Amino acid sequence: MLSRIQVPSAARRGEIIPIRIAIQHPMETGYRPDHFGRRIPKNVINSLVCRYNGLEVFRAEMGSGIAANPLLQFYVVAADSGEFVFAWEDDSGQRGSERAAITVSD
Amino acid sequence: MGIRCHAVALLFVLALGPGAIAADQAAPAPRSGIAFASADIRALQLDDFANPGMLWVARGGKLWSAATGRSNRSCVNCHGDAASSMKGVAARYPGVDAATSELLNLEGRINRCRKDQQAAEPLAYESEDLLALTAYVAHQSRGQPLQVSVDAVARPYFARGREIYYRRQGQMNLACTHCHEQNVGRKLLADTISEGHGNAYPIYRLEWQSAGSLHRRLRACYFGVRAEMPAAGSAELLDLELYLAWRASGLPVETPGVRR
């Protein structure tokens, strides 16, 4: 599962920083038939979690209303230098992950 | 005086007919399709992270350095860093292959390289991998003005492409020109009709929920006028692609574009 993340490499302590993640995924709704009229099974990224130095700072539970190739953006207060770790899973059981380091200065 | 000049010029064009339009003079200032898109689509295309087409570019970047085929060679083995070796290349395609005198677009060139240099199976047209590689290669030319050659060897392809552009077809009995030259800026259902330039392909189209090739988009136009759709990668669409690229001369490559 191809993905891209955007995390500032450096920030000041207490700064509010934007975090973005884009994942290449069909987000199949489960409502569409294929060319032979068979229902294409639902397959969406049902859960995505972001941890900042082990602490869960963002969680998304997505359904069939989310478009393909989702782009998620949220804001975090820069507390300490460390790492953002993303992990997600779709209905077919496929998992993906991304990580990015940040340096926080006073 | 101004109006009279225009009237005379119009009569002149009408008298010559579309087939006689000066062959080496593209429209004076072509406008890219993005100029007809809504503000949110424009913002999405301009944001290199949010632009979903960049996912295909990123995938293409991985494929660029992945060894493949019986040769076990990657694109890097011959071309090195795409940022320098592929810069400006997409602006010159489609072009005639010197060895075979065949007209090749970027997709065709990539598959030719796979066959001749990598001893690999060709990638299916519209497959994720071919779209990704094409998007990655074209992206290296972003900002470069389109400048295809329509000289001696390319001439027959170009002439056929122009003939297709002005040929009425399908149950609707429409040619490309009827929408993309004669009704530019007007509405077709909820869409604004653009000049129909291909300078941003492969594009991410929200309707497709995916990236797609110029040929996929052209097939959608054939479908729209209820004509028989040529296969993606077919000679007819390649000829048309060359004519379209010439028509868009000077427009910067925008790959990956975003459209509704």
Give structural notes:
The complex is a heterodimer of chains A (106) and B (260). With 106 residues, chain A is mainly β. Chain A has one domain (3-105): Immunoglobulins (Immunoglobulin-like, Sandwich), CATH 2.60.40.10. Chain A has strands at 3-6, 10-12, 16-23, 45-52, 55-61, 71-77, 82-90, 95-105. In chain A, the strands form two sheets. Chain A has a five-stranded mixed β-sheet, with no helix packed on it. In chain A, a hairpin with a 4-residue loop joins β7 and β8 (95-105). The relative contact order of chain A is 0.33. The model of chain A has no long low-confidence stretch (mean pLDDT 96). With 260 residues, chain B is mainly alpha-helical. Chain B folds into two domains: 3-46 and 146-259, Cytochrome c-like domain (Cytochrome Bc1 Complex, Chain D, domain 2); 55-139, Cytochrome Bc1 Complex, Chain D, domain 2 (Orthogonal Bundle), CATH 1.10.760. Chain B is built from eleven helices and seven strands. Chain B has helices spanning 2-16, 39-46, 53-64, 75-79, 82-85, 106-116, 128-139, 155-165, 176-180, 214-224, 235-247; strands at residues 95-96, 103-104, 187-188, 191-192, 203-205, 210-212, 257-259. In chain B, the strands form three sheets. Chain B has a three-stranded mixed β-sheet. Chain B has a two-stranded antiparallel sheet with strand order 1-2. In chain B, α3 (53-64) packs across α7, α6 (106-116) packs across α7 and α8 (155-165) crosses α11 (235-247). The model of chain B is unreliable at 1-23 (pLDDT under 50). Classes of the chains: A mainly beta (106), B mainly alpha (260). At the A-B interface, β1 and β3 of A face α3 of B.
